[in-house]
Predict the structure.
Amino acid sequence: MNISISEVTSGFSVFGFEITNTMIWTWLILAILSVVFIWLGSGLKVKPTSKKQVVAEMIYGVIGNLVESNIGPNTKAFIPYFTALFAFILTANLSGVWGLGVIRPPTADVATPFALALMTCVISWYYKIKMNGIKEHLKGFLGPVKFMTPIMLPMNIISEIANPVSLTLRMFGNLLGGLIIGTLIYSMLIGSNVMPIWIALGSVLLCAVLLTKQYKKIKELDKTKKMMVMGLGILCCLPLFAMIFVHGYFDIFSGCLQTYIFCLLSMIFISP
Amino acid sequence: MEGLNITGQDLIYAASAIGAGLAVGLAAIGPGIGEGFAAGKATEAVGRQPEAQSKITTTMLMGQAVSETTGLYGLVVALLLIFVKPF
């Protein structure tokens, strides 16, 4: 098997725009999420009668609590944005669990996290200007005391730029690092032609041992021999367990954590 | 030694590989120490208040993921050196 790190490739172009696989997966995820959320939000009643309305209210409540505790009171307008952000990033990060190169997670392309971070950035500027007025907002860059201005102004501008950059690189680095390490482990375990044979042998051995428990005909094998065969089977199947660990850590754990952190830092960044 | 013909481009690739390794390795020192510190403090906090374990764990993981960013900058630099080949 020849395993290579999946890349952002462009299959075709429409009106001069290159359509990459990232864009295709992004649109697919957006379409699925749109259908799901339109279905969740349709036919709402004052007294919930269906299960789906309870689920919808639960999602609204969780995100609403998070927004209210991080941005401030009377910030209901942010709940749709953060629900969409949360759902999209979570789905995109978890889409890597299908294995090698089946779906390349859209968030492992630097463009997607940068777009999301830029959106947060623009919203935060708009919200801060709306809350304080443009004069106060610009005055905030100069620092509290007048003679500190030559030092404070460049530092404030740099910190304003550093926020979206750090948001971008955090998610991009985590996802791409996970993708590359996963690919390396895959190529180490099943890259050679020998390894699939070993895995097949291990599976056969494990199945044989497990079957002897059900069919008492094959009772000639005593317990120690059975244990030895089972141990051999598990040893041969170790690559499979390693893959489960890789996907569990880099896709599920890291993906969920990065989603939560991206949304939380966006909220902290937006809060005035 | 015949056939050993190293061009300038080869030297640049070799230096890029060494640089990528150094970037990840050196950038991993800081977050490693910092995250270990955070985990140690969280363990202390759980020992003092076992009933607040879930909240402490969440806070610790969040802080660790934020401090991991500095290490990820090094990783991004290494990836650029290896895959994008800017020189």
Summary: The first strand of chain A starts at residue 10 and ends at 14. The CA atoms of residues 34 and 84 of chain A lie 9 Å apart.
